[in-house]
Design goal:
alpha/beta; 3 domains; two-stranded antiparallel ribbon; 15 helices; elongated
């Protein structure tokens, strides 16, 4: 039995395109952002909110985040892996009491995986049950099959659906892993924050979600998408801030050991390595050393645990042994 989708939106399901107020087109890139009510009063308040979630941001990052909230614009965060880009969205959602919706990007990500798809298995079962029950009215069955009951919401559709707690935080993580066609599709979503479903109509966000995009810059993000966003590069923190981060995130690490860890990692980042350790590796290493009962850096323990900091064999071969011992001596002198 063949059942075709209904010709138009199902009445009362989702706002239809015909009845919806028209949104200003942003295809030209010239639409200016209007001010919205920010959930935080100032940059300082946002710094305090992030610190309350044990995320110690600098003023420049907090300013960009505040402007994103105030202007209702997406925020694109770039930087090396492990510097805390993804964590920004997590702590922002937790601090604001909003739902976090995460779209993890990967090569080959398509619209169905990111937006929505129909639950074909349940639709086929519904058809079989309808046939077993007796004569089938095809038009009524089609309307049933292409209703919200059989709609599988993916992250982007979920993000433009109303939430009583307020607009959710949408994290589009590692955008650089996708391809340019997906970027073009994403550009349309970020312009109007609405989704058209042929069988149901248009889903429009009652309030734009708070959008955080991250990229490790394995490739360049297209200029058209960047123009839709506020941009910030998250660099490795200086020693004082990284020590404060380690103390906040891993308070079990003794103060002297924490100072030596940060000194070692900063000297290690000055080396010619394929992949420098990020803040995430610093935190992992601190917890690993505490688990081993270490109270001070020593060459033997450092050489045995370098795999927590360095993830490539060439980097390990370059640092293991005498170079690591020299770094330990320098770090102990600092700590």
């Amino acid at each position: 039995m063949t059942v075709r989708p209904p010709a138009g939106p199902t009445a009362g399901a989702i706002e239809s395109a015909a009845s919806a107020p028209s949104a200003p087109s942003a295809s030209s890139g010239a639409v200016s952002a209007s001010l919205v009510v920010s959930p935080v009063a100032s940059v300082d308040a946002l710094l305090a909110l992030l610190a309350g979630q044990r995320y110690l941001a600098d003023t420049s990052l907090a300013t960009v985040l505040y402007l994103g909230l105030r202007l209702g614009k997406p925020i694109l965060l770039e930087g090396e892996a492990g510097v805390g880009k993804t964590e920004v969205a997590k702590v922002l959602a937790a601090g604001l009491g909003r739902r976090l919706i995460r779209l993890q990007c990967y090569e080959g990500l398509d619209v169905a995986s990111a937006l929505y798809e129909w639950d074909f298995a349940r639709q086929m079962l519904e058809i079989r049950l309808a046939e077993a029950a007796g004569p089938v009215e095809r038009a009524a069955l089609a309307t049933t099959l292409y209703s919200e009951r059989f709609l599988l919401r993916r992250p982007l559709l979920d993000a433009v659906t109303g939430d009583p707690a307020g607009a959710p935080v949408l994290l589009i993580d590692e955008l650089d892993r996708t391809d340019e066609p997906f970027e073009a599709f994403l550009l349309e979503i970020l312009s109007d924050f609405q989704v058209s479903i042929p069988e149901l109509g248009t889903v429009r966000a009652p309030a734009p979600p708070i959008v955080i995009l991250t990229s490790n810059r394995t490739r360049e993000i297209h200029d058209a998408l960047k123009r839709r966003c506020l941009y910030h590069w998250i660099d490795y923190p200086d020693a004082a801030r990284e020590l404060a981060i380690l103390t906040a995130r891993a308070p079990e690490v003794p103060a002297r050991l924490a100072a030596q860890i940060v000194a070692f990692v900063h000297k290690l980042r000055a080396s010619d390595l394929f992949k420098l350790p990020g803040v995430a590796e610093t935190l992992d290493w601190g917890q690993a050393l505490v688990a081993l009962g270490c109270v001070e850096l020593d060459p033997e323990t450092v050489n045995a645990t370098l795999g927590v900091l360095l993830k490539y064999q060439d980097d390990l071969a370059k640092i293991t042994g005498a170079p690591a011992s020299a770094l330990v001596d320098a770090a102990r002198g600092t700590g």
